[in-house]
Amino acid sequence: MLPFASSFTTLLLALSIAATPLEVRNSPITLPIARSLNVSGGTINLLQHDQARAAAFRGRPASGIRRQSDNTSAINMGLSYTVKVGVGSPVTTYNLMVDTGSSNTWVGSGTAYVKTSTSYDTGEPVAVGYGSGSFEGTEYTDTITIGTGLTITQQSIGVANTSSGFTGVDGIVGIGPVDLTEGTLTKEESTTIPTVTENLYTQGLISEIVVGISFEPTNAEAITNGELTFGGTDATKYTGTIAYTPLTTTPLASTFWGISESITYGSTIIMSEITGIVDTATTFTLIPSYAYVAYKSATSSTLDQPTGLLRITTAQYHAMYDLNFNIGSNTYALTPNGQIWPRSLNTYIGGSSRSIYLVVNDIGSPGAAGPDFINGYTFLERFYSVFDTTHSRVGFATTLYTNATTN
Ligand SMILES: *[C@@H]1O[C@H](CO)[C@@H](O)[C@H](O)[C@H]1NC(C)=O
Ligand SMILES: *[C@@H]1O[C@H](CO)[C@@H](O)[C@H](O)[C@H]1NC(C)=O
Ligand SMILES: *[C@@H]1O[C@H](CO)[C@@H](O)[C@H](O)[C@H]1NC(C)=O
Ligand SMILES: *[C@@H]1O[C@H](CO)[C@@H](O)[C@H](O)[C@H]1NC(C)=O
User: 29-212: which CATH architecture?
Assistant: First the structure.
């Protein structure tokens, strides 16, 4: 019996080793997210930035090609949400924009890439157009350090030799679906590039391909009040339970973090159920033209030319209803305060300090291609969000700030 038992044990060991090739540390990794409104370049046109970005999302071919040759013009992005990511050994730290709407990770728009012994030049040209900006350069692999010294080896990263539209940040950490990287290696049209989240998983640092994001409303110009969690969610950042909705299979929303939702303003239907996306790097919440017109009418707001935003009076503000986002069987209500831009930041976006501006705007007419709405930062600062590749779903939960009156 002994030889059998021992070889059985050996077999079990071999099996378990094969099943778990790497040590799984299994604990989520959390990083603080800094938010910064860069007004040094003068008034920032956040709406123009968002609409250019949305147009690029909507004009994107079903597969591949997000090139600089996509007809893009650079727009100072003004508002950024960044995490610190270390690259190389010794580490150089970069402030990278957290972007759920793209999936390439790259550096070089601010702090120049510092090559070290872990840097490997693949020689592959890489290019991505974002509508509001773009970069091109060369794909490297390098060691990435995140959080408290956790390292990903041989992470594929872009090193920009040219970029536009990314003032005040050093690049992007792309946490969208991996398919968005297809066509970005310009000589390998059908190749995708494993994202940071995927490599954290395949290298055994997290046990699920999940990202949790906490933003909090603020009226400060610069503050570190957000949190990015790789591999799980942070129960201290939300209240109640997280409700999940499946990722949509409807193109093109399905290329991104795409979901279905309908919207009501009070009891007025603004938008019946359609598909769109959730995007951290879009500031406003954009809805189709017909829904925007319905919202404008329901709020009795007027178009403010300087900002491009809808404007209301104080009396109208006090008469506002919740804007309800119906997702699956749950309703996420943006309160009146959640529907307005922080008043103390009005002048930075070209507005008047005495006016009240709404954060819901127009994505354009519904297209054959979609996505037809974007739940952007102004939605995400009121609801904790979870981007779950492992279970093909997106989750939302209320937070201590869902009903805050910061604006
Ligand atoms: C590209 O941009 C140029 C200049 O802004 C414009 O004239 C042209 O119509 C654009 N082309 C496409 C295909 O959008
Ligand atoms: C920048 O990178 C692209 C893609 O690799 C390449 O085609 C271009 O020649 C490079 N430009 C400069 C100025 O090095
Ligand atoms: C702010 O934007 C300007 C360009 O408008 C840029 O030159 C500057 O580096 C940025 N500063 C910060 C701190 O992001
Ligand atoms: C927000 O306020 C509404 C209405 O008062 C209430 O029903 C809801 O529970 C509140 N939500 C949170 C997360 O506090």
Answer: Beta Barrel (2.40)
